[in-house]
């Protein structure tokens, strides 16, 4: 794929919405593409995470291990999905395993690249901060909605 295709894809990722084309170009230029074949694992639950992945093509199955040791389906990720966004900012462990259900490609955005974007462009840092706060608030609201089940 061309750099312009990567820029267009990144512009559709909600976390990157509002980034200028120049900033998206810098990120796309510094990122790396990775091809996966059907059945190949992109990353495993519990592994140290040092990057995020944007799905460029294909479909990925997301699974985690339940407390009883069984495999739990967490969903699927398709084109434009950002996986492990927090790993682009901070050291974390992968919360699930991502496996290619079809042949596909991802764009790998490593932590040093993304942190450099945040450091060099304060407007980007403010946008990312606001979006992560919104995501956390939505997650907390969802958990509050489940409180009745456990009371």
Automatic annotation (TrEMBL):
SMART domains: cNMP
Pfam families in UniProt: cNMP_binding
Gene3D superfamilies: Jelly Rolls
Superkingdom per UniProt: Bacteria
Domain Cyclic nucleotide-binding: 15-118
InterPro entries for the chain: cNMP-bd_dom, cNMP-bd_dom_sf, Env_Response_Regulators, RmlC-like_jellyroll
Database matches in PANTHER family: CRP FAMILY TRANSCRIPTIONAL REGULATORY PROTEIN, DNA-BINDING TRANSCRIPTIONAL DUAL REGULATOR CRP
Protein name: Cyclic nucleotide-binding domain-containing protein
Naturally occurring in which organism (per UniProt): Shinella pollutisoli
